[in-house]
Specification:
- The protein folds into two domains: about 140 residues, HAD superfamily/HAD-like (Rossmann fold, 3-Layer(aba) Sandwich); about 60 residues, Putative phosphatase, domain 2 (DNA polymerase, domain 1), CATH 1.10.150.
- About 45% of the residues lie in helices and about 15% in strands.
- It is built from nine helices and eight strands.
Length: about 210
């Protein structure tokens, strides 16, 4: 069966505000100054990687992640917007018998809350996210797990995402990929990572998938 793995943040929804606000909250709770500046790089990678890059010491990373999750579970998840036209694109793919799977580094609980709230879950056959301890937060591991669970074959599967993590995760599992520049990675990042195809509008998603798969 033709299978499409879909990133969530920056691909189906604009999750930036909720993520950045929750990162700042966590830093303040730990006695650090709140984050200021361009934080778009924090949309996509595992939380541990982001806090490590922000200077949180290794022995306090789990604490930072927990503070983040406290706020994100309360309000951060709702500071989110569905990209215009995405549900129509998902409906088109579903009507043409593609197997659709969420593949996000976000914690399973929050990801499912978001996909249900925005109606994304209605089109999904599977939803794969990370566990509380960070298991499957890495896209290579996550996609591999998702392929096993969904019985997807590499030659009949594709990954769609906005960051290099998505593209590299796809390559490491033998998948082709669609990079989306309307998210948080941008053209240069996606080209450098080696995306098979790059699109700039959410409304191009279904056609891009069909062109490759």
């Amino acid at each position: 069966m033709k299978t499409v793995f879909l990133d969530l943040d920056g691909t189906l929804t604009d999750a930036g505000p909720g993520i950045l606000n929750s990162v700042s909250y966590a830093l303040e709770k730990m006695g650090y100054a709140p984050f200021e500046g361009d934080g778009f790089w924090m949309v996509g990678p595992p939380l541990w990687d982001s806090f490590r890059r922000l200077g949180v010491p290794e022995d306090r990373l789990d604490e930072a992640v927990q503070h983040y999750r406290d706020r994100y579970a309360d309000v951060g998840w709702s500071e989110n917007n569905l990209y215009k036209g995405i549900l129509t694109e998902l409906s088109t793919l579903k009507s043409q018998d593609y197997q659709l799977c969420i593949a996000t580094s976000k914690h399973n609980t929050y990801a499912r809350k978001i996909t249900k709230h925005f109606g994304i879950a209605d089109f999904m056959d599977y939803e794969f996210g990370s566990e509380s301890d960070g298991t499957h937060a890495d896209k290579t591991s996550l996609i591999r797990f998702g392929m096993a669970q969904s019985k997807a074959k590499a030659e009949q599967s594709i990954m769609v995402g906005d960051r290099h993590y998505d593209i590299i995760g796809a390559q490491n599992n033998g998948l082709r990929s669609v990079g989306v520049t309307y998210g948080y990675g941008g053209q240069q990042e996606l080209e450098k990572a080696g995306a098979t195809k790059i699109i700039s509008r959410p409304t191009d998603l279904a056609n891009a998938v069909k062109a490759l798969l």
